[in-house]
Amino acid sequence: MKEPLLKSIMTPFPYSVESTASLTEAREMMQEHGVRHLPVTSSHQLTGLLDIMDIDSATEKLAEGTDPDQVTVKQVLADRDYYSVDLDQPLHAVLREMAYEHLSAAVVTTHGRLAGIFTATDACRAFADHLDRQFRPGEDEPPEAA
């Protein structure tokens, strides 16, 4: 049996947000597309990863009267590290690193460019599929969650 690679399970071509976008724009994009993570780009170069908790935390810390439309994604991320991994990485290595570092997502790249995103939700879905194949062969898969 061949070891699975990250690219077989990741979410390809994820939505992303420009670093100059406002917190309000980023939140609206997340809500519109039903996602909790957005890779951040600046002039098409990957610069970070924003999650909904970053937005919530930053919004709570805003001085009274500060409009979230005036705060950019770049200001919130402020040189914070993010986990980036090549799409050809073995899945077990990515899962282990995410567990060890308590990460909810990894940005997936190829040749230094954004290729996908891999989240804890993707990992859970893949593991559930694996268990179904192991212990419920031949049964229909459950319907996709809305």
Automatic annotation (TrEMBL):
Which SUPFAM superfamilies does the annotation name? Answer: CBS-domain pair
Presence of the UniProt keyword Transmembrane in the record: no
Q: Which PROSITE patterns match?
A: CBS (PS51371)
Identify the keywords attached in UniProt to this record, alphabetized: CBS domain
Give one Pfam family. CBS
The chain's coiled-coil residues are none
For the CBS domain, which residue ranges apply?
10-68, 78-133
Protein name from the UniProt record: Hypoxic response protein 1
Organism field: Granulosicoccus antarcticus IMCC3135
